[in-house]
């Protein structure tokens, strides 16, 4: 058993108050690594792969909607708090059981993407990318709920969030860089297979851990039962995803949408619907007596409690979180196609996505996590918004410059530093909004809603690029990130009622 595994096991058996900072950091470094590896593979690496296969920029933009799936993780997050994974959870506990199931899903989805890497069937490419996004998100939901339970205060959250993001970003960047370099040396099939194997590495570490309870026995039997049950669950999820995807695609084509349709106005209208629905529901929610959510369903209670506690102020909070990461999401969607069109090689992109992005993002995460424990969150969030905007605007300089390794690496470093800093401050802020009664579900809702508008717009990014160019696109994305600053005086005064 590895040292990290031993430390993680100690945390599962010890009360949070007695868990050392070192053990928590080791655990969340591992969990961050587990979730970070697959992220680029259905996002930035996939957009680059499609661009190298000469897929239209508008279609590439549509693929960014796959990243919308994590936005709706609140829909299945309560299931992870309520149900066990057969076999796995009996021996290793509910949280680790879901993590192990998710890692199997991640591995098989990436293998499927590897063997369809020619992208001759874009619907098939989209199906396996959606499954990869689903299981990656499920892994994050299980880990996030655990983190908030183990470290409920702002002072405890800062270092743990930093460690988690170090693991997440190092794995994410290493996956992006590694996949691109393998594709340059071999092909995209080998690139996805290599990352699939790396993503599966934490599974045997988790399987080697001691049981959640000392009296639990039968590791081999639990492992076999868990794998068998997981395969059934994975097949069922794939089947449902195929049917839903086919239905949605048929409906979209039937409505007359195509690559030539300007979808931006439609996207903006759809993005306003949750705010309108919530504004209508809030008066009734605010009138609920204290304790009313305790009598509600396991699905509704966490979200009703959140709206009850913050009231109308929740609209300002949701507007702020929707804007804060806007630039990062939009930049991630088109940065790789931009590098490709600007004439940079796969080897140069691989280095930029590797050591350059990793070093810069780690520095940003470290500084953002550290300042979250030293300054008020309002000031840390403001600094994060400025650094994130600068990271977007730097690509205008890159686009108008002759291809140069120095320009590419400098741009990526500035972008990733701002992304890391803002990301660390943002995670701490969201963690402070949740109730200790519903940490997993409420964090899943807030962190998912934060990316609803950005990822909706990201799907229209190809359309926007054809209308305003790369320079106009990155100027706009940076301005949207900076706009979140104007809501800071409002959210600084938001105080919730005592939790129900």
UniProtKB/TrEMBL annotation:
<dbReference type="GO" id="GO:0016020">
    <property type="term" value="C:membrane"/>
</dbReference>
<keyword id="KW-0813">Transport</keyword>
<keyword id="KW-0812">Transmembrane</keyword>
<feature type="transmembrane region" description="Helical">
    <location>
        <begin position="27"/>
        <end position="51"/>
    </location>
</feature>
<keyword id="KW-1133">Transmembrane helix</keyword>
<feature type="transmembrane region" description="Helical">
    <location>
        <begin position="97"/>
        <end position="118"/>
    </location>
</feature>
<keyword id="KW-0472">Membrane</keyword>
<dbReference type="InterPro" id="IPR004752">
    <property type="entry name" value="AmpG_permease/AT-1"/>
</dbReference>
<feature type="transmembrane region" description="Helical">
    <location>
        <begin position="377"/>
        <end position="400"/>
    </location>
</feature>
<feature type="transmembrane region" description="Helical">
    <location>
        <begin position="406"/>
        <end position="431"/>
    </location>
</feature>
<feature type="transmembrane region" description="Helical">
    <location>
        <begin position="57"/>
        <end position="76"/>
    </location>
</feature>
<feature type="transmembrane region" description="Helical">
    <location>
        <begin position="222"/>
        <end position="246"/>
    </location>
</feature>
<feature type="transmembrane region" description="Helical">
    <location>
        <begin position="124"/>
        <end position="146"/>
    </location>
</feature>
<feature type="transmembrane region" description="Helical">
    <location>
        <begin position="443"/>
        <end position="461"/>
    </location>
</feature>
<feature type="transmembrane region" description="Helical">
    <location>
        <begin position="346"/>
        <end position="370"/>
    </location>
</feature>
<feature type="transmembrane region" description="Helical">
    <location>
        <begin position="166"/>
        <end position="185"/>
    </location>
</feature>
<protein>
    <submittedName>
        <fullName>Permease</fullName>
    </submittedName>
</protein>
<feature type="transmembrane region" description="Helical">
    <location>
        <begin position="191"/>
        <end position="210"/>
    </location>
</feature>
<feature type="transmembrane region" description="Helical">
    <location>
        <begin position="306"/>
        <end position="326"/>
    </location>
</feature>
<dbReference type="InterPro" id="IPR036259">
    <property type="entry name" value="MFS_trans_sf"/>
</dbReference>
<feature type="transmembrane region" description="Helical">
    <location>
        <begin position="266"/>
        <end position="285"/>
    </location>
</feature>
<feature type="transmembrane region" description="Helical">
    <location>
        <begin position="473"/>
        <end position="492"/>
    </location>
</feature>
